Amino acid sequence: MKNSTTREIEHVVLAHGGGGELMARLIRDHLLPPLKNERLAPLTDGAVLPWTAGDLVFTTDSYVVTPLEFPGGDIGRLAVAGTVNDLAVMGAEPVALSLGLILEEGLPLEVLDGILASIAATAAEAGVTIVTGDTKVIERRKKPAAESQTAAPAADGLFINTAGVGRRRPGVNLDIKRIAPGDLILINGTLADHGLTIMSVRNGIEFESALRTDAAPLNGLIGQLLDCGADVKFLRDPTRGGLAGVLADICEATSLSIDVAEDQVPISRTARHAAEMLGLDPLTVANEGKVVAVIAPQHVEQALRALRNHPLGKSAAVIAEVTGAAPPLVELITRVGGRRIIQRPYGEELPRIC
Amino acid sequence: MKNSTTREIEHVVLAHGGGGELMARLIRDHLLPPLKNERLAPLTDGAVLPWTAGDLVFTTDSYVVTPLEFPGGDIGRLAVAGTVNDLAVMGAEPVALSLGLILEEGLPLEVLDGILASIAATAAEAGVTIVTGDTKVIERRKKPAAESQTAAPAADGLFINTAGVGRRRPGVNLDIKRIAPGDLILINGTLADHGLTIMSVRNGIEFESALRTDAAPLNGLIGQLLDCGADVKFLRDPTRGGLAGVLADICEATSLSIDVAEDQVPISRTARHAAEMLGLDPLTVANEGKVVAVIAPQHVEQALRALRNHPLGKSAAVIAEVTGAAPPLVELITRVGGRRIIQRPYGEELPRIC
């Protein structure tokens, strides 16, 4: 049993964000130990990174997923992997991340510690360091009861922003405008695992074969693909909006059509079952460890081998072909040979999925 | 009079964050027009910045100030100026910012438009571009009534993260460890205006001579100071924790003492009056357009001239001296010649001030 003074200090309080002694302690005792590195340690207003000539790639993402923890990952793993992946699909080697935390008053420090450990582990996995950060605290808030269907638990606890800087790999020429009829579209594994995991947890649904998020840093896998000698024309991670969103982007930017082979799209039996129960189309559901790659047709075997040689690409597959058919449409060639138009989802099927 | 369908679309809805068609429209109609530039326009996963050799400085800050708009500025001006200033006090020329928006469902799009315009104007003032961004939407939430004293209005509406990259100026040697007894501490103008403005608005207090935030990008002013030939040893912007926080940092890092001359510290009559009414010590209140500079004594006139030659430094003053007195303390030499110890504020006097 602990007394009330001790208990108060085991949760985030508003004073942790005030720039005073209590904030200094939060940083010293909870944030620095898991993330410690020589650039972060001085706690100045920013980090100095030596940079030889070469293009810099700069990206940012905020993470508001609810719940904070879910099978296979948590908001911390998502925040590191998501920003690393944004750099990687731009053809960059990730160099450093920033970490902006917005904590909600009442967040147990134990939960914060767990998420920081996950951030540190995922950063180590990606070979990237957190070099600068910022912490703010907001008042605890309650949600109106009426929103029970989509609402998260009353205390969200934590929002994270990670920005990232990377060095563009020389010789890489990724440009959506280079896509041409005949190009093939590859994916490194099964679709929809992340979004379906989150929605299953929120709806209290369990499946015999457990669903887990696919969240993972893809810079290693993408590095292997870019190094294999294939002409890689375009890369994108199918997060919010899912595969359908990425294909719609390609169709709009190029005015070309895309035929997706339904029987080639890797979706696990559990995910298919979950999508049916939740009434969701797996093609529009968010992924956090997948990359869509557009490859010149003569290099597709080479590219597929490079992906399958990496642990995160074992189920890689060619799932679609770019065509010159008019008008420009994305179509699913169904198992029975029919055609169904795939559209960009209109709005928010899945709130706060990442 | 507008019908309900039209009205719904004039506010942020959850679907604006879903990665679908509605989000594409939000970006196209509300975010891109004010910020437009050639790097942001392609809307890829990140921005490519050509970089010749030279140290990179990388920083991040989240902004959760409430209310969103206040005399002299808004959360948008704060988000740009704050991150630009973090780069500038590291001795860097700001190059590019990222913009991470977390919108609360129900935020009027008109308010969002106003804040985006302010972001664009402040970025132009600082000579920096927004090159990459991200938008998330969270459910509208209500605060418990019990928190009326410090609580903001029910809908906060908007959190912003800006990360920044800058190029370190060659020849600059800013290092807290270089501070030595005899060094003088300068400030570019009046203290406490930002924090007191926010607290006055929240408490519904008006003053005859209006209080306004001092939020402003300081890269121009700091550039003039660094170019003037003076030995500038250390720079920091006294935001959360105020001047007291910065002086405590110096005292801790150097084990030197600091004597602050109360009658030299520039504080406006209105700010002094507001601080008294609100029961706040101006030395611990946040500033958003101020820089603390530590200068070798033989260069102080030169540095003061450089600051006063800039519109944001007209009231610059020497406010303190570093001494070797033991034990290391920060002390205020009062108007009547007494001494009072200045301590780092413990916690949260001023929640959500920036």
General description of the model:
The structure is a homodimer of 354-residue chains. By secondary structure, the first copy, chain A, is an alpha+beta fold. Chain A folds into three domains: 1-41, no CATH class; 43-168, 60s Ribosomal Protein L30, Chain: A, CATH 3.30.1330; 176-341, PurM-like C-terminal domain (Phosphoribosyl-aminoimidazole Synthetase, Chain A, domain 2). Chain A has nine helices and 14 strands. Chain A has helices spanning 4-8, 21-35, 75-89, 109-126, 193-202, 219-227, 242-254, 269-278, 300-308, and strands at residues 47-49, 56-63, 69-70, 73-74, 92-104, 129-138, 158-168, 184-187, 232-236, 257-261, 292-295, 317-323, 330-333, 339-341. In chain A, the strands form three sheets. The first copy, chain A, has a seven-stranded mixed sheet, with helices on both faces. In chain A, strand 5 (92-104), helix 4 and strand 6 form a beta-alpha-beta unit. The longest helix of chain A has 18 residues, at 109-126. Chains A and B meet through helix 2, strand 1, strand 2, helix 3 and strand 5 of A and helix 2, strand 1, strand 2, helix 3 and strand 5 of B. Strand 2 of chain A pairs antiparallel with strand 1 of chain B, so a sheet runs across the interface.
- Identify the CATH homologous superfamily of the largest domain in chain A: PurM-like C-terminal domain
Radius of gyration of chain A: 22 Å
Which CATH architecture of the largest domain in chain A?
A: Alpha-Beta Complex
Provide the spatial order of strands within the biggest beta sheet of chain A.
Answer: 9-11-8-12-10-13-14
Number of helices of chain A: 9
The percent range for helix content of chain A is 25-40%
What would the CATH topology of the largest domain in chain A be? Phosphoribosyl-aminoimidazole Synthetase, Chain A, domain 2
Apparent shape of chain A:
globular
